[in-house]
């Protein structure tokens, strides 16, 4: 069976690090912790799980820290996690099975990364990341911030999921790094342009974010999924600034990259709802249901092809006077979100409308 090193970089993670290590310590043969300057109890907690604790001077470069951590590993494969990640019990079992069956010809294994959850603890936003890599391949991390692991060779997509469950977040850290890069006149890659624009959005700078999303798209070197996300985020920025036509134009631009994605369809549906054109809105929401995203896609948000268009179709057909059709869509929505107050309120509303009239 292949041996596995867990490599992590940490800093002031006392609130979450033990939860993470408890969920994964039985799955690996070695744990490597690289601390970038903790001032809390993080290192003491980690010492209960490993003696391989290293200090690394923080230089505003995540890739540098991760590459240093990888260099300390000694096992056949390297697994990486963040301190606020958790491997749930069912995924621990999947991981153990993978260990026992993994073909040594495989160079890198991707896993699902759940980023957000609804009230029923179902994932509402997921993506894939390469989590387990063969050490002898010497794969490197790239990027000072929003870094990525550059892999190649024989790749395998697993069904193992990692859950991102943060309790807090340094909201200014990433934008500080990008702005230092700008001050030092460091050239931005297309990826940097995209992620800097995202940080600007998160900091309420919509107009400046538009500038960098446009720069990113004009490079024509962006990854397809990032191109689509940039279009949708552009639409949000324009909408925030009250520029409705520009917002619709940004969504339409997403259609130039590939077949209509459910999110694009839902956005177009909403634009027609705002105009009171419920027939056209219904058309686009029905397209969202028809153009279902592949659950194994790099980015996956099931909301745009399940309960959200169903909820909106219930509203559209109610406005169009087709109560029975509206009720059917609403009932379908409840199969995905049985506790959603909007859908439950609609259910009561339609039940009253469809109640047989007394003679």
Could you walk me through the main structural features you see in this protein, from its secondary elements to its overall organization?
With 359 residues, the protein is α/β, with parallel strands linked by helices. It has 2 domains: 4-164, Spore Coat Polysaccharide Biosynthesis Protein SpsA, Chain A (Alpha-Beta Complex), CATH 3.90.550.10; 173-353, Serine Threonine Protein Phosphatase 5, Tetratricopeptide repeat. Helix content is 47%, strand content 17%. The protein contains 14 helices and 11 strands. It has helices spanning 17-24, 42-46, 62-71, 89-101, 173-183, 190-202, 206-219, 224-240, 244-254, 262-275, 278-290, 307-319, 323-336, 341-353, and strands at 4-10, 30-35, 53-55, 77-80, 85-86, 108-117, 123-134, 140-142, 148-150, 155-164, 299-300. Strands 1, 2, 3, 4, 5, 6, 7, 10 and 11 form a 9-stranded mixed β-sheet that branches. A two-stranded antiparallel ribbon has the order 8-9. Helix 6 (190-202) runs parallel beside helix 8 (224-240), helix 8 runs antiparallel to helix 9 and helix 13 (323-336) packs antiparallel against helix 14 (341-353). The longest helix has 17 residues, at 224-240.
Percentage of residues in DSSP E strands = 15-25%
Distance between the termini: 76 Å
Parts with pLDDT < 50 across at least 5 consecutive residues: none
Domain module tally: 2
Radius of gyration: 23 Å
**Could you spell the SSE succession in H and E letters?**
EHEHEHEEHEEEEEHHHHHHHEHHH
Structural class: alpha/beta
Instruction: Write down the overall mean pLDDT.
Output: 95
Seen as an oligomer or otherwise, the chain set is single chain
- CATH class of the largest domain, anyone? Mainly Alpha
Shape: globular
The third-level CATH topology of the largest domain is Serine Threonine Protein Phosphatase 5, Tetratricopeptide repeat
- According to CATH, the homologous superfamily of the largest domain is Tetratricopeptide repeat domain
How many strand segments? 11
Characterize the largest beta sheet: strand count, sense, and whether it forms a barrel: 9 strands, mixed
Number of helices: 14
Protein name: Glycosyltransferase
Domain Glycosyltransferase 2-like: 5-125
InterPro entries: Glyco_trans_2-like (IPR001173), Nucleotide-diphossugar_trans (IPR029044), TPR-like_helical_dom_sf (IPR011990), TPR_rpt (IPR019734)
GO molecular function, one term: transferase activity
């Amino acid at each position: 069976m292949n041996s596995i090193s867990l490599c992590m970089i940490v800093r002031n993670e006392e609130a979450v690090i033990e939860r993470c290590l408890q969920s994964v310590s039985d799955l690996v043969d070695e744990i490597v912790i690289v601390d970038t300057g903790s001032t809390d109890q993080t290192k003491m907690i980690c010492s209960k799980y490993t003696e391989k604790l290293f200090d690394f001077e923080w230089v505003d470069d995540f890739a540098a820290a991760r590459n240093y951590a990888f260099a300390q590993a000694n096992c056949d494969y390297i697994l990486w996690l963040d301190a606020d990640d958790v491997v749930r019990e069912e995924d621990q079992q999947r991981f153990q099975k993978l260990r026992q069956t993994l073909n040594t010809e495989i160079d890198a294994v991707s896993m699902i990364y759940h980023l957000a959850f609804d009230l029923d603890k179902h994932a509402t936003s997921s993506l894939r990341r390469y989590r387990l890599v063969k050490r002898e391949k010497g794969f490197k991390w790239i990027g000072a911030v929003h870094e990525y692991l550059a892999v190649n060779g024989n790749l395998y997509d697993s069904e193992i999921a990692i859950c991102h469950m943060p309790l807090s977040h340094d909201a200014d850290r990433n934008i500080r790094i990008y702005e230092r890069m700008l001050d030092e006149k460091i050239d931005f890659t297309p990826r940097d342009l995209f992620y800097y624009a995202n940080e600007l959005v998160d900091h309420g700078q919509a107009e400046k974010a538009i500038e960098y999303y446009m720069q990113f798209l004009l490079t024509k070197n962006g990854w397809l999924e990032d191109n689509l996300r940039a279009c949708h985020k552009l639409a949000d920025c324009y909408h925030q600034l009250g520029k409705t036509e520009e917002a619709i134009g940004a969504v339409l631009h997403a259609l130039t990259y590939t077949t209509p994605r459910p999110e694009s369809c839902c956005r177009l549906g909403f634009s027609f709802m705002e105009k009171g054109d419920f027939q056209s809105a219904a058309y686009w929401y029905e397209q969202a249901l028809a153009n279902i995203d592949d659950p194994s896609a790099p980015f996956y948000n099931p909301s745009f092809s399940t309960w959200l268009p169903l909820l909106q179709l219930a509203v559209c057909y109610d406005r169009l006077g087709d109560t029975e059709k509206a009720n059917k869509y609403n009932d379908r929505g409840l199969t995905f979100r049985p506790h959603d107050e909007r859908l439950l309120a609609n259910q009561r509303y339609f039940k009253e409308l469809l109640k047989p009239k007394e003679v």
